[in-house]
Prior knowledge:
This protein is α+β, with helices and mostly antiparallel strands. The protein is built from twelve helices and five strands. It has helices at residues 3-9, 20-42, 49-73, 80-100, 112-120, 126-146, 157-249, 253-278, 281-284, 290-305, 322-343, 381-390, and strands at residues 309-314, 348-355, 358-365, 394-399, 405-412. It is rod-shaped and about 140 Å long.
Amino acid sequence: MSEAVERNTLPTYAVFDDYRYTQRIAVVVRWFLLAAWLFVLNYRVEADSTLFILDGMGVALIAVNGYVHWRLWRGRPVTRAYVLALSIMDLSIITAGIGITSRFDNTFFVFYYPALLGLSLVFSSRRLSFAAVTAVAAAYLAISLALDPGISVENREERVLTVRIVTMFAVVAAANLMVRLETSRRREAVEAERARAQENLELQKKAQEAALAAQEERARIAREIHDGVAQSMYALSLSLETCADLAERENGPVLRDRLQKLVPLAKKTLLETRHYIYDLKPLLAGESGLEAVAENQAKEFEMVSGLPVSVSVQGEPFQVPMAVATGFYRLLQEALANVLKHARASKVTVDLTFEPGLVRLTVRDDGAGFDVDNLRPGYGLDNMRDRAEEMGGTFEMTSAPDEGTCISVALPAQEVKHEVN
């Protein structure tokens, strides 16, 4: 982004090398000074070379002040270079006018005060402001003392000279305080604006992250409904159609066996549906710890499947981050769903162990088991392994034909921060 474009995108109070604020005052004051300067020089006086020089300097100052005024009117920035050029011209013309006319007796010295005010509005540094007024005061002091008519000690004119010089320093000190105060307020406004912008950025980021998480959760639920409930309902509907055909032809053992096979399918579908109905509401509301989650899921599974489930909790329970609690919920849910789908078990055991910095979940059944080396697709174990490892945990599974299955998951008690490449 170029400097001009960047400047236009910022509020004017945030551009500290733009002197439009202070120079509005200086430009207006300078117009009054120029009018008074030209009037006093040319009113009821005879034209000579000195008057021509002084009028020429006044016209030059009119041209430069008019250009800066035009920039202000057009809304263009006024940089330090313009301001310094004008202030130096002010002070040079005033000093030259005093030096080539009546010196100490010249009442034009009063023009020093607004001119020094304009110069002081440029510097927020007290050192630079006082260096400038010291140089001007030294020049005026040299003119007043060294050039005719000088000062009259008998008339105590040194007191008048002292007051004039002290007033110069007083004007500069007051102007410097004004500039420092105005600059400080502008910086505070910029910092407040930057803090609000950062806060808004953080809020937008959190909103985007929440929207992304919600989208991912909707996609996950849609996928699981499609792969789980939808497929089960489809299989259930086909089987019911077959039973209806069999009922028309015969009322024997074949129909009874067919209907008996539909019972576990209906229970599995009911379990999956109830999972989506209740899902994570108590957990997200902070109403349940992991031990309560395990108990509730076990009771839900018992009610739907008719299989007894025993839950044991070991160690001192503690709260875990929401991501860990959510992962625990999902893993236990999938483990119990696998028991209902594939195990043909008569009982299930759920062990929850709290260890320092670790939560361990173990789900055992006494079902048919399977050959781990020849695992068929559809058990969802790879998904469980991936979920555990994404959370920085471990996943272990042991099984053998007719010996049941044991799934063990260890999750860290602290949420894992994933690095962004």
